[in-house]
User: What shape does this take?
Amino acid sequence: MIGFLGLTDAEQRRWDLLSLTLRVAIPLWLDERRGWPAEMLAARARECSQVIAAEGDVLMFGGKKGGSGRVFNHLAEGMACALLVADGGMTFLGAYWHLDSAGRLQLGEPF
Assistant: This one.
């Protein structure tokens, strides 16, 4: 069956699982990267985005052993770095990801 955004049920389950695991992983990366200078955070976010751009399809379709874990970690780290320097947060996987005034990850409805 084709669902929201034209995803099959299996693809939707993968996106839902990705969203759930990011909700756990991003706060861990936030703790690791908090305190880094903004220039380093932005540079690391760009580095992570290059891995995601080149290999991100393994998150949806699989690939060589260990590849999806590596790409997932780059996604979580890159999002954490971006959230630490990007005022206003980001929309991803149908949710608005941002940090509250205490620096905690929050998810809300996209704009």
